[in-house]
Amino acid sequence: MKAETTVDRRAQIRQLLETNNVVSSQQLADRFQVSLMTIYRDLDNLQEQGIAKRQHGGAILANRFVSARLRGKRANENLDAKRAIGRYAARHLVNPDDDAIIISAGSTTLEFVRQLPDVPINVMANSLEALSILGTHTHTNLYALGGELRKDVMAFGGAMTHENLKQCHFAKAFIGVDGIDMESGFTSTNEQTARISRLMGEHAEQVYILTDSSKFDQKSFRTIFQFDAVDAIITNSGVPDRYKDFLKEHNVALIEVDKASEE
């Protein structure tokens, strides 16, 4: 089977890595009907992105790369921390003076949604589950960021979503991420998710990242933001010290939530 383009071939190699954790250079050359030198360049490219780690005869999935498959497995992990983060953000970062806020899809942002007060502000979200929860509010003005429903994450995305978002402006954006890395910034396992989250941030006066500390020193497929686009990170204890220093240097506030204090 011959990939039509370099981008297509590399995307397929990445998928094979995510599925099998290891690939053989010779087997890839045979599969895609290209030379070994072409495969070496592909693997070098994936290594530069932090996706693959080259080894003799092929490559393995880089330990620090968070795949979509692994992201799904992690959705129910660290729930206590995610709930505490959500409670803190809902209690301290949302008030009736906010004209409008927007919330990205994600497991931590969903815990934030569960704790949101029923106050008369405009709230927009692209997660179907978040919209369902907020639909029970009496005073909140709820807006769905429509478009194509991505059934893998039950959230809206695509060109229509992007166009809808471009017409809106928000006081605050609350964004979930799959990884935080000093070089790659804030990342997502999915291109559409990254683009939508980026647009949310661009149309908000303040950007808050809601994520548990396990996402630090991890990176995924696509960058959402660099650090200069973010105002604060709300997380739990366990952030590596070097990241605390790094965030201070980049003027990003770090709020580490104590689970007990938010119960």
Automatic annotation (TrEMBL):
It comes from the Bacteria. Keywords: Transcription, Transcription regulation. Residues 6-61 form the HTH deoR-type domain. SMART domains: DeoRC, HTH_DEOR. GO terms for molecular function: DNA-binding transcription factor activity. This is HTH-type transcriptional repressor glcR. It comes from Suttonella ornithocola.
